[in-house]
Amino acid sequence: MLAWAVVLAAFAGLRDRLPDPLATHFGPGGEADGFTGTGAFLSVVTAVLLGSGLLTLMPTLRLNKGLRAQRFAVTLGYGLSGLLGYAFASLLFANADATRASRVSQPLWQLGVAFAVAAVMGALGWLIAGRDPASATGPGDRAAAPRLPLARGEVATWTRSVGSPVLLAVGAGTTLLGAVLTAVGSGPATWLIVIGLVSTALARCRVTVDRRGLAVVPWFAPRPRMRIPLDRIERATSREAGALSLGGWGYRIRGGGSALVFRSGDALFLTLTTGREFAVTVDDAATAAALLNTLIERDRPAPGERG
Question: What is residue 161's predicted lDDT score, i.e. its pLDDT?
Answer without folding.
Answer: 92
